[in-house]
Specification:
By secondary structure, the protein is an alpha+beta fold. It has ten helices and eight strands.
Length: about 350
Amino acid sequence: MDSISQAALGAAVAGLVAGKRCTPKVLLAGAALGTLPDLDVVLDYGDPISNMIKHRGFSHSLFVLIPFSVVLALFWKRFFAASWPFVQLLTLITAALITHPILDSFTSYGTQLFWPLDVPSVAISSMFIIDPLYTLPLLIPVLAALIWRRRAAKLCGAGLAISTLYLMWSLVALGQVQERVEENVAGTHLEGQPVFISPTPFNTVLWRVVVLDDEKYWEGLTSLLDEDPVIDWMPMIRGEWPFPSEPELLAQFEAFTRGFVQFKQQDNTLTVTDLRLGMAMYHPFEFLMAEKNDQQIWQLVDPVQLDPGPVLPRQIPALWMRLLGLQSIDALLCNEHDCFREEQIEETIQ
């Protein structure tokens, strides 16, 4: 999640645990602890793909944060909070730290909660990385707690209760969309194919669905407000890796994305894209990995992350209209490079 959400969550958790001991300093300390795990962004692992894959790694691991909480609590009690009961101080620090990666695990990016174990990162994908309906119920009570100090703990508790209910709602909404997708692909050649589902920006009503299908993939949008549960699919070019073997870095990238990768050959360049994040016309994680030399032979290059460019102005109102069930997906998903043109589509999802 974004830094504001994480800071508000850390502050609210600290305020609730502190109880009558809650002060503005406690709230600020909780906010700092809530953002601390994301300091791993300053680390450089050598290339942009590795930086992407290893973000939310050791600094988000429960096996690291819990022992670190004990050390930090001992240090803090020794030098700054001698009057605090150690158990209360340890609970505050541990809760403010570990709620950060737990919240991150509800997004699509993936969080390595169990690093260094060789297990997949956790990516529930029921929340967009920025969602005001989650953040505001936390942020407003925390700001109010800075003013009404006697009620600070109760305000923080109320904010946490509301935001947690919204988090639980996102799981319910995800379950409804999963059932709808299963019904839509049942009896088609897409039944049993890998499926990725995530909310669109800033809400849990309109959802994006991606289904892999060999050298193409099908992308659709479905809103919980749609009167018709039939998903309107758009086929997209997925491409393929042109080399007989793939480098270890690409294998790691495919494992990280769970196979939701697009290979795009354009002019003399080859890029790889994480299909889970963004939408068809806007993918923030696209990397140049190969170029053609003067003899028109592909050669690997050091990965370079490409600028996705700005969001098109027409997409914002189109997204809102689609959320309400009043817009087709073409305005949001289709462009001249990624979509099959209507005359090129020789088969349907059926």
